[in-house]
Amino acid sequence: SFSYAALTYQGVQLTDGNDPLGIVSDRNAFQLGAANAVRFIEITSNSDIISTGSTSEFANLDQWRTWTNRDLNSVTGTFYDQYEFRGIAPNQELRIKTNPAPIGSILSNRGEILTAVSTDIDGAPRGEAQQLFDIGADEFSGRQYLNDIEAVNILEPSAYRSIAGPTSDAEYIMTKEGVDVQARLRNNGSLSASRTPVRVRIYLESITSNNNEATNPTWGPAVIDRIVNVDLAGGETRDVEFGIPSWSPTPYFGLPGYTVPARFGSMSMNVTPRYRIEVTTASDENNANNTYAKVVRFFVQKSGMRIIVSAAGSTNNLLATTPTVNQIVGRLNFDSLVGGLNRIGWINMPMTGSYAYDVFERTAWEERAVDYTMYRSIFWSSDTSRFSRFQRRDLSRFIGAGSQDEKKNVVLAGQEYARKHLGMDVINDQGWVNRTLRVLNVAPGTPVAGTYHDKRVRGDAITRNTTETIVRTGFPGDAEPLPALVRLYSDQLTSGLAQSAYVYPRADRSTPTDSIMGSATSSLVANVIYYGVDWRHWKSTGPRTGVERVLRGSVDFIEKYGGTVVPVELSSFDAVSRGNVVDVLWTTASELNSDRFIVERADLIAGNDAEFRSVGSVPASGTSTQRVDYSFADRGVQPGRYLYRLTTVDVDGSTERSREVEVLVTDNSGVFDINNVWPQPASTIATVSVNVPTGGMLSIRIVDAAGNTVSTIHSGIVAARQHEFEFPVSMMASGGYSIVATLDGQSIAAPMVVRR
To answer: How far apart are CA 537 and CA 329, in angstroms?
Structure first.
């Protein structure tokens, strides 16, 4: 059933004020009484119903504004009593009173100027003297206050706020450090206001109020109290920034005496208690509209590497009660992911102000107020649920915020996603999984029936040719490992090159042909990796195995394809093998008093705890403000698994180390493989080395980030040996490309960067 609503709208999702298919709604007046502001029946562009809405969804105008960016200049108040009937029934007209005319009416001079409309319902001229129209069909001569400065709204910070449930206690704001306040003011008076003072105050919730999770919070002294002076002509609306210097909300971790609510337990380094933001104008003839206030709670970005771990179940207590399967899965996946991040050296040390990554618990946050776009990389942990429509929207928005200059990176694991999103209806939204994760579920949805415990996966685009073992956790009540079985997906709407991340060996699967476990996709603006195995099921057999190796491989893939996960002083650093030669490649954007670079290698298989030894050095440029490309060939490397790193030595003897890059050197005489593409980046001529194990038809193509073939390097019969092909790139646009080699129907790919 539908309750009363001032505005009922059936249409597409509204995301900003410029949606071509969305409603245009602004400069309206709402007198709500017991009615809702808006009833929104959301449909797709094909008119499929997504949601019929609810009475609490847009009960007030602020909810509608923050979610849709509509009605930003609209107003709520009372105006029914400003109308009167004229004439004798049944021939009556409803018009604004004239004796006396209303004073300070919210209908007066607040409407839209419509160039196609020159008169009102009675033929009276509209918008005289270039004023805004009166709201409604009747243009009237209302009385104005001489002085009436209204605090209309607080535009920033701002987010959707529920009116029921645990997230109804505040607006939930995700932000970087350094928060300012922007308010909308309007001069409803007839006189101009010169240097009128406008005050912003921000109050932190008191310890007692926070620790009791008070429904009606109380506040401590103002932590911000700032006044700006504003000039406003009569009838003028202006957005004002207060220029608060260097203020950031304080998370729970930095507030002694404050108890962290249980639902925020994993986010105490980022989530704050509630704050009250209050904007006040000077006293005037209509003090009822002089103050606008809101209650907010912040999630503050702390990660210097701009990495966020998005989890579902990170605060689940598995020992207090008998947990559900979903609770077990969510918590164990989170613990496994974070454990892997810690083992690769990404450790949060809040006491020293060092934050490698931020933790975000999705179930504790307002689902309409999630914004990942301030981050560069998302590591996603799942429970057994499918993606909600809001989660799909959040991930799409994050990926869409990427650019050629800074790609967005998503590393996502969830064995249920591919097989739970079946069907093209708006709930299942299989198309989103197909086009974003670039996978298509293959019946029966798993490589074997029952369990995949103690079976293997083999790296393809990720940690190529390494083998990992999938195991059950053994935790009481936990679900068996049943990883996803998928095919790679492409259509006319997909972009970028999708590759299989891992595959199931033939001996461990029951499917005769399909073998893909996940995808690794690089496009012009993003790298998206999807694993069809949950984080908790990767078996660790020692250092740099299991989840740790998967995460290292994920980072390597992202950085090879133009993304950045770990910012370093070097512009880039990489190491790639071609036969028994490892090419170590790096680039500096600038150098100051640098002397030399030492290339170091550690043997991961020799059982010596990966001790690094120098294998060579390269003279540095000294002092440079230009880009400099370096390379070093480590020759005669025996088959094995190695780590490479770079030590920069300055003229004063000080040193600095790069990140580590893992390289697999194999006896690839019997393997079809792209050994190397160099130089990286290329500007004029590049070379690709391809190992061909058996003679046959070989084609080599250059593919751009949209998946289009740019040119063909070679097409013809070749003999079984290592081949090198030179090709020009001087006419190609700068950016990331893939070299795709196909031998008798089998395709492999390697990244290439062109920089002109």
So the answer is: 10
Please say whether the dihedral angle defined by the alpha carbons of residues 169, 171, 174 and 180, taken in this order, is positive or negative.
Answer: negative
Nearest alpha-carbon partner for 225 in 200, 203, 260 = 200
Tokens describing residue 737: 């490309």
Task: Check pLDDT > 70 for residue 621.
Answer: yes
Q: Report pLDDT digits (tens) over 571-617.
A: 778 888 877 788 898 888 767 678 899 999 998 876 555 688 999 99
- Measured in whole angstroms, how far is the alpha carbon of residue 272 from the centre of its chain? 21
Contact 308, 379 (CB under 8 A): yes
Please choose, from the candidates 188, 211, 206, the residue with its C-alpha nearest in 3D space to the C-alpha of residue 106: 188
Domains of the chain: 80-130 (no CATH), 145-300 (2.60.40.10), 307-560 (3.40.50.880), 568-666 (2.60.40.10), 669-756 (2.60.40.1930)
DSSP conformational letter for 334: H
Cis peptide bond prior to 323, omega within 30° of 0: no
Integer Cα distance of 577 and 184 in angstroms: 59
Q: Cβ(614)–Cβ(646) under 8 Å?
A: no
Three-state DSSP at 67 gives helix
pLDDT in tens, 225-252: 999 999 999 999 999 999 998 899 999 9
Grouping H, G, I as helix, E, B as strand and the rest as coil, residue 102 is coil
> Which CA distances in Å does 630 have to 597, 602, 658?
9, 21, 14
What is the spatial distance between Cα 300 and Cα 316, in angstroms, rounded to a whole number? 22
- pLDDT of residue 466 exceeding 90: yes
- Mind spelling out the 3-state secondary structure of 521-552? EECCCEEEEEECCCHHHECCCCCCCCHHHHHH
Tokens representing residue 472 in the block:
């059950």
Query: How many CB atoms within 10 Å of residue 469?
Result: 18
Which class for 258: exposed (0-12), middle (13-18), buried (19 or more C-beta within 10 A)? buried
DSSP assignment of 686-732 equals EEEEEEESS-EEEEEEEEETTS-EEEEEEEEEE-SEEEEEEEE-TTS
- The CA distance from 28 to 155, in Å, is 18
Structure tokens at 471: 């195991």
* Both structure tokens of 74: 């609209």
Other beta carbons within 10 Å of 246: 7
